[in-house]
UniProtKB/TrEMBL annotation:
This protein's name: histidine kinase
Catalytic activity as recorded in UniProt: ATP + protein L-histidine = ADP + protein N-phospho-L-histidine
A GO MF term: protein histidine kinase activity
Listed Gene3D superfamilies: Histidine kinase-like ATPase, C-terminal domain
Top EC class of this enzyme: transferase
Alphabetized UniProt keyword annotations: ATP-binding, Kinase, Nucleotide-binding, Transferase, Two-component regulatory system
E.C. number(s) listed in UniProt: 2.7.13.3
Top-level taxon of the source organism: Bacteria
Listed GO biological process terms: phosphorelay signal transduction system
Record-annotated Histidine kinase domain positions: 27-232
Length: 279
């Protein structure tokens, strides 16, 4: 009897997919209407308050789209019975594709991205590429959310005795801690977020047998430290799914895929300005 109740209360994959389709279709409609209204205002004119109201609706829809996507991905991960199949990937290549968007980030947010390999040219690790991309994207996104205009984010990769250490460091608001001002600045930087990004990062690490630690940066800000086990195979093994295909076309596709994901993330960033004006 209890089993029947559980089955009745559970939602099937098909039902969940229909819910997702309805939600994303509605969000897309909101986005298209906001775009139409902005174009209409450009032709006919509108007061500042009306324009700001439409912009606020568009921003809220983008944030909701992001939160819904994160929640769906997180639920998929949590409901999977087995971990994904891991293959060797070149982490240096993936980070290069992320850092390739530095000009766009600097132009839009005024934040510099610095990539530091510590002299490494390749870094082969066992990973699921989708999970590794999500992890890098969300760690960078969190760092950008915390940073102010004129700030910087450093993505560093170092070899350790037991593996590799990936560190994403920002000079932004820092962890909330006990400092009231830092807590206020942290809340302002991540205003409206459901804080699913960090959960998703931890889940990506768990699935790949990596680990994630957040800690204060040495001077100011926060650093996310990802510990990655050492790959014991050859430096660039042949015949694997991830490393066999390295054509320029695929690399460009991956770069533009990451760019599209990052553009979407940047549209959820808070407006830059003097933090003193916001309290």
């Amino acid at each position: 009897m209890e089993q029947q109740k559980t089955e009745t209360r559970s939602i099937t994959a098909e039902q969940r997919k229909r819910v997702e389709e309805v939600c994303f279709r509605s969000l897309a409609l909101i986005g298209r209407n906001c775009e139409y209204l902005e174009q209409h205002f450009d032709r006919t004119g509108a007061d500042t308050s009306t324009r700001q109201a439409v912009a606020d609706i568009d921003t809220a829809a983008i944030q909701l789209d992001r939160t819904l996507t994160e929640a769906i991905t997180l639920l998929e991960f949590l409901h999977e019975d087995t971990k994904p199949q891991l293959y060797p990937i070149d982490l240096c290549e993936l980070l290069q594709q992320v850092a390739a968007q530095s000009d766009m980030i600097r132009a839009q947010l005024g934040v510099d991205i610095r990539l530091d390999y510590g002299g490494c040219t390749t870094c082969c690790v066992m990973a699921d590429r989708r999970d590794a991309e999500l992890l890098c994207l969300h760690l960078l996104s969190n760092a950008l959310h915390a940073s102010r205009e004129g700030g910087s984010v450093c993505i560093a990769l170092r070899r350790t005795e037991s593996g590799w250490q990936l560190t994403v460091t920002d000079d932004g608001c820092g962890l909330p801690g006990e400092d009231v001002q830092a807590a206020l600045e942290n809340r302002r930087s991540f205003l409206g977020g459901a804080q699913l990004g960090l959960l998703l990062c931890r889940e990506c690490c768990r699935r790949m047998d990596w680990s994630l630690q957040l800690e204060p940066a040495p001077e100011k800000g926060t650093q996310a430290v990802v510990s990655i086990p050492l790959y014991t195979g050859e430096s660039r093994p042949a015949g694997t799914v991830e490393l066999r295909t390295g054509s320029e076309t695929e690399q460009e596709q991956r770069k533009y895929h990451l760019r599209a994901m990052l553009v979407r993330e940047m549209r959820t960033m808070p407006e830059r300005g003097d933090p003193e004006d916001e309290f």
